Amino acid sequence: MEKQVVSVEWLKKNQSLKNLIILDASPDSTVGGKASPFKDYGIPNARIVNIKKQLTNKKSEFPNTIPTAAQFQKVYQSLGINNDSSIVVYDNLGIYTSPRVWWLFKAMGHNDVAVLDGGLPEWIRNGYATVHKTDLPVSFEAGNFQANFDENLVLKYQDVLENIESNKFKIVDARSSGRFNGTAPEPRKHLQSGHIPNSYNIPFPSLLKDGKFKSAAAIRKIFEDQVSDQDMLAFSCGSGLTACIVMLASEIAFKESRFLYDGSWTEYAELQNLKK
């Protein structure tokens, strides 16, 4: 496939490609107090994966923590994913949870994966057929997918602390400017807002328009106003989810850099509080 993002037109045209798997990674809860108007629908023959229930390490004290390689492998084998599968992942909010699944595949060594630009809303806007989610397939012949986890892509708290002094990489924070600047509250009420020292703020909505990624030129300009393409970039947000949107935007139009501070602000702020 050799694409990081595909259009709904591309997917419609290529639905019958050999080895193509469509994944529905829509959240099963509200986001910002609102549920998607399309929450009960999906693209025909899509296979459902749930980040919260299936792709999060339940033993971690922090939300959305990357699953173990064994856990990830088991989930995708059960969904009929093979080592030679070409994967297109979408969500029902446009661009929200799907980039997290894109990054997880990359971190687990599977590169043939792309995000559907605009997701299910864009698919519906183009008049393409949908089915009720209860009619999507749920049983599959087990796949042979093998995870090959690159743990170097996942930054730890200690890495971030050391970087405050060394400035080896630039952390790009995907949260709102209010949360980043400490003028708006965090959704986790016990957490203070603010940011990791020496980090940079590119709120993920600034890279989107009508639920799709902005043009490459517009995205590049947003990044150039904050960082250089000579910098080593790492991405952060509240809990490691929307950081992947900004990471994917960078790969589309700025530079490839798949380093993620998975614990993000939740972990950093929690552990800083413990030190006080």
What's the CATH superfamily of the largest domain, by name?
Answer: Rhodanese-like domain
Strand order of the largest sheet: 1-6-5-2-4
What percentage of the residues does DSSP assign to strands (E)? 5-15%
Uncertain spans: none
List the helices and strands in order. Answer: EHEEEHHEHEHEEHEHEEEHEHEH
Summarize the amount of helix as a percent range: 25-40%
**Sheet having the most strands:** 5 strands, parallel
> How many DSSP H or I helices?
10
Describe the structure.
With 276 residues, the chain is α/β, with parallel strands linked by helices. It folds into two domains: 5-149, Rhodanese-like domain (Oxidized Rhodanese, domain 1); 153-275, Rhodanese-like domain (Oxidized Rhodanese, domain 1). Helix content is 31%, strand content 15%. It has helices spanning 8-14, 51-54, 69-78, 98-107, 119-125, 157-166, 177-181, 216-224, 243-253, 264-275, and strands spanning 5-6, 20-24, 41-42, 47-48, 86-90, 113-116, 131-132, 154-155, 170-173, 200-201, 208-209, 212-213, 233-236, 259-261. The strands form four sheets. Strands 1-6-5-2-4 form a five-stranded parallel sheet. Strands 8-14-13-9-10 form a five-stranded parallel sheet. Helix 4 crosses helix 9 and helix 8 (216-224) crosses helix 9 (243-253).
